[in-house]
Amino acid sequence: LVGGALALDLETVVRAYLQQTIGGLISVCQRLLPVGQRQASALLWHIKPEIIAAAERSRDDRSDDAFWTFAALVDIGGMRHPTLSTRLFIS
């Protein structure tokens, strides 16, 4: 939606989405593992070629059937998380 509003090409939007998603996953790793900021930044930098390659591979299948997601258990877990007595991340 934002990419369209900014008139960005689809490949740039896909790359930005992948970078942000992987950055979020690395952030979770920092909370669960002994990974510092420098290591996290280096990991994200070194995975850059794979992000670009994944964005390029996505050009091969741009049908509507390729864009979907279903993660019901993840969504349910996310809704229950604030009321749990023990939580992984308290922020």
Automatic annotation (TrEMBL):
GO terms for molecular function: nickel cation binding. It holds the Pfam family UreF. It comes from the Bacteria. This is Urease accessory protein UreF. It comes from uncultured Chloroflexia bacterium.
